[in-house]
């Protein structure tokens, strides 16, 4: 087997949604190690990965920084005939007198040119990633497609039998089994339930449908019945943070707010917010008491002759 081919000896075949997550992890890891992952993640892949492109761009930028670095200004900062000296604080310094008698100072040596700069640039240009030839690209694509087919059972193969590219095959399998892999998984359902949040301004009825469907799925997956208190806790957790203080005050001395009462309270709050929004759009933002008092004081001054 050539080094560019991925081995399938250690892979269990994809049978469906039950082992899809494990299959996908193993397949992507193996293809990535063989530099074939781009054929299943990018359409019309040219054989050059993003990592190689990033390394090339970073190397080019480093060379441009070297070329653009300012040269020492020693030669340009001095005149070819005379040199200006700072006045010395010691007037009796014999070295200063001797230097003044000796005439103009000699021109400082020019900076050493970086002889290795052109060589380094040439080396970076030689290391730029070159896309493989069309023949090599077709061969790598065929190897990736064959590898995918060898790791799948009969049912997934039937789903992809009419697809021609490795990208289309992999994406079709992921689309088929991605969401179904977690169907009935109590841990995933619990996570989804805790992540369900109500966004202000969204449809509250649709939110209740999603939340209650998730709670029914949790009850079925865990083979238990959610109590009214548990439902109330999930609903309270999904409300915006700015509402929680009002709900705690409304709760009173009871251990928890009954689910139906909490649901009605949220619906009433949403209706009031929507009514306030409609009023603001129609009439503008209601004036505060301070603004009304200011207008009342200014109005008589305009009416006096």
From TrEMBL:
Residues 1-136, 278-305 are annotated as: Disordered. Residues 1-18 have a biased composition (Polar residues). Residues 286-296 have a biased composition (Basic and acidic residues). It comes from the Eukaryota. Pfam families: Retrotran_gag_2. Residues 58-67 have a biased composition (Low complexity). This is Retrotransposon Copia-like N-terminal domain-containing protein.
């Amino acid at each position: 087997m050539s080094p560019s081919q991925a081995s399938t000896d250690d892979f269990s075949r994809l049978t469906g949604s039950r082992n899809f997550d494990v299959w996908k992890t193993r397949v992507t890891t193996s293809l990535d190690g063989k530099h074939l992952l781009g054929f299943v993640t990018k359409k019309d892949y040219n054989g050059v990965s993003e990592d190689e492109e990033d390394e090339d761009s970073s190397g080019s930028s480093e060379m441009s920084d070297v070329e653009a670095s300012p040269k020492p200004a020693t030669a340009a900062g001095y005149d070819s005939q005379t040199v200006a000296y700072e006045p010395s604080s010691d007037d009796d310094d014999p070295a200063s007198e001797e230097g003044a008698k000796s005439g103009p100072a000699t021109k400082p040596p020019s900076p050493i040119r970086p002889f290795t700069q052109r060589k380094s640039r040439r080396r970076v240009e030689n290391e730029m990633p070159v896309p493989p030839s069309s023949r090599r690209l077709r061969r790598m694509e065929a190897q990736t497609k064959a590898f995918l087919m060898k790791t799948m059972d009969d049912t997934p193969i039937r789903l992809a039998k009419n697809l021609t590219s490795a990208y289309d095959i992999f994406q079709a399998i992921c689309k088929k089994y991605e969401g179904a892999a977690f169907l009935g998984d109590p841990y995933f359902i619990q996570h989804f339930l805790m992540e369900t949040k109500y966004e202000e301004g969204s449809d509250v009825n649709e939110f209740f449908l999603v939340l209650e469907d998730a709670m029914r799925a949790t009850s079925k997956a865990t083979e238990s019945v959610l109590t009214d208190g548990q439902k109330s806790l999930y609903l309270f957790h999904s409300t915006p943070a700015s509402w929680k203080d009002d709900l705690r005050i409304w709760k009173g001395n009871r251990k928890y707010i009954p689910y139906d009462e909490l649901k009605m309270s949220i619906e009433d709050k949403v209706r009031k917010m929507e009514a306030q929004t409609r009023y603001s759009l129609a009439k503008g933002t209601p004036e505060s008491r301070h603004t009304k008092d200011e207008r009342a004081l200014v109005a008589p001054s305009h009416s006096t002759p």
